[in-house]
């Protein structure tokens, strides 16, 4: 027994080391899976509470998702206790990301992105637009892009005078990013359009989806998804896809548990803001630094439509996520995170 380790061959040593590494990797993988499952349960719990609140329209909750995770608190503590932050953080001048959801979604949809950014030492903040997520406004009462974007604009206007953020907009949230670039350009260091409605001056967000939904005029007359919140004899106030349509359009590559989260969390989409033509000037919107992230397995905003958007209004740079559906924060969170970090480090 005492000579066992001395007599081991190189092969025995390699096999033993390989076994130890496998065990360590197995433990690490299980830990990561457990942490992701914890985050998902937390997001689902908040979504269920939000679903209850959105029906009652009372009460209040934080607009920021996931800030109670012990894993992220421990990371923040380790930086404050003298441990060195990642070297690349020195190359990032503005570390705050403001995340703007798309149609029907809310701040809840960014839970994976928030966790990944915070783990890296960055500062994410997810906004609920008016009538979305846990915002208590009735969706049927939101008629303009200004009203819809008000939580975002208020947040930007209340930043310290010398502070700027990296703004990320998903899907129709891209119109809110464009609106913010026009009204608060001094607060935005970079604007990232994530498979988003990066519209030109005089264009409506809805126009970008015309390939899937038909013309705006036809949609208003014939769509089965319209909601008449003020009565059937009044103009429609919003729209909401059926669950089966949403699964096919938005989540064709997303995990079942994230689709389940979305099914209990998504709210009707205000019609007025997506039908409004944007007024964008070269002096304000035109001076913003824009970046576009394309999703290449997207059925809601096809890759061809996304290519047309970047041709019609070329951004500073274009990035692509292979195998991603319309919701890369669900289907490809690591790839999205990598691109966000790369954009943040661009001088």
From TrEMBL:
Q: Which UniProt keywords apply?
A: Hydrolase
In this chain, composition skew of type Low complexity spans: 60-69
Domain AB hydrolase-1: start-end pairs: 97-336
Question: What is one Pfam family matched by this protein?
Answer: Abhydrolase_6
Database matches in InterPro entries: AB_hydrolase_1, AB_hydrolase_fold, MES/HNL
Q: Write out the biased-composition intervals (Basic residues).
A: 20-29
Q: Per the record, which residues fall in region Disordered? A: 1-29, 58-79
Q: Residue ranges under compositional bias (Basic and acidic residues)?
A: 9-18
- Looking at the keywords, is Transmembrane helix present? no
Q: Which GO terms describe its biological process?
A: jasmonic acid metabolic process; salicylic acid metabolic process
GO MF annotation terms: methyl indole-3-acetate esterase activity; methyl jasmonate esterase activity; methyl salicylate esterase activity
Give the top-rank taxon of the lineage listed in the UniProt record for this protein.
Eukaryota
Q: What is this protein called?
A: AB hydrolase-1 domain-containing protein
């Amino acid at each position: 027994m005492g000579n066992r380790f001395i007599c081991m061959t190189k092969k025995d040593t390699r096999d033993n080391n390989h076994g130890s590494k496998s065990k360590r990797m197995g433990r690490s993988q299980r830990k990561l899976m457990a942490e992701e499952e914890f985050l998902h349960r937390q997001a689902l719990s908040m979504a269920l509470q939000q679903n209850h609140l959105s029906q009652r329209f009372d009460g209040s909750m934080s607009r920021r998702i996931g800030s109670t995770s012990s894993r992220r608190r421990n990371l923040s503590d380790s930086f404050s206790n003298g441990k060195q932050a990642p070297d690349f953080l020195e190359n990032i001048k503005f570390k705050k990301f403001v995340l703007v959801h798309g149609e029907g979604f809310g701040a809840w949809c960014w839970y994976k992105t928030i966790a990944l950014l915070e783990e890296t030492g960055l500062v994410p903040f997810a906004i609920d637009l008016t009538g979305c997520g846990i915002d208590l406004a009735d969706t049927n009462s939101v008629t303009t892009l200004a009203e819809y974007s008000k939580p975002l604009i208020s947040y930007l206007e209340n930043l310290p005078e010398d502070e700027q953020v990296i703004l990320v907009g998903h899907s129709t949230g891209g119109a809110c990013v464009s609106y913010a670039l026009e009204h608060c350009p001094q607060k935005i260091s970079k604007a990232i359009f994530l498979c988003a409605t990066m519209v030109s001056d005089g264009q409506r967000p809805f126009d970008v989806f015309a390939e899937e939904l038909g013309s705006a005029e036809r949609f208003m007359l014939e769509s089965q998804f319209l909601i008449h919140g003020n009565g059937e004899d009044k103009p429609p106030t919003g729209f909401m896809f059926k669950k089966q349509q949403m699964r096919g359009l938005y989540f064709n590559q997303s995990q079942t548990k994230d689709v389940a989260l979305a099914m209990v969390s998504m709210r009707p989409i205000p019609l007025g803001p997506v039908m409004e033509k944007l007024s964008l000037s070269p002096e304000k919107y035109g001076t913003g630094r824009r970046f576009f992230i394309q999703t290449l397995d997207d059925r809601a905003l096809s890759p061809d439509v996304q290519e047309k958007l970047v041709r019609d209004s070329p951004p500073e740079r274009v990035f692509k996520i292979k195998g991603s559906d319309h919701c890369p924060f669900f289907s490809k969170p690591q790839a999205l995170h990598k691109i966000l970090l790369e954009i943040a480090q661009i001088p």
